[in-house]
Amino acid sequence: MSMLLSGLVEKVKELSYREKLKLAQKLIQMACIEEERLNSASQAEEMETIKKRLLKSKPAKYDALTNFIKAMYNFNGGIEDAKVTKIIENLQKSKFIRLDKNKVEYLTIEKTLSK
Fold first, then answer.
1. Structural domain spans, the chain
2. What 8-state DSSP symbol labels residue 100?
3. What is the C-alpha to C-alpha distance for residues 109 and 106, in angstroms, rounded to an integer?
4. Alpha carbon separation from 65 to 7, 23, 91, 92, 113 (Å, rounded)
5. Which of 4, 41, 51, 96 is the most buried if burial means most Cβ atoms within 10 Å?
6. Tens digit of pLDDT for each residue in 3-24?
């Protein structure tokens, strides 16, 4: 345990049980906010990686798109169908793709290639 943490532990021992509970609650809230921030940054990076790989392959059918995304995660233990669906929803919300029945249309090819 670091010197700073040891000193904090000693100070916390002086608090009442209610103050300890309030401190614990505040620390959990702070950790959750930090975790959320880190996750959203990594999700944004993940989406950019997916977009770049999709532009190289451009699967034209919905089934091919889902299979392509699943294949990207094969070496990482796979991916749940619900997450694949969420990724596709995010691609549509960001106007990267549009689904027309079973067909995939890429909307931002020119914008992405010019970056």
1. 3-113
2. E
3. 6
4. 54, 47, 11, 13, 20
5. 96
6. 888 899 999 999 999 999 999 9
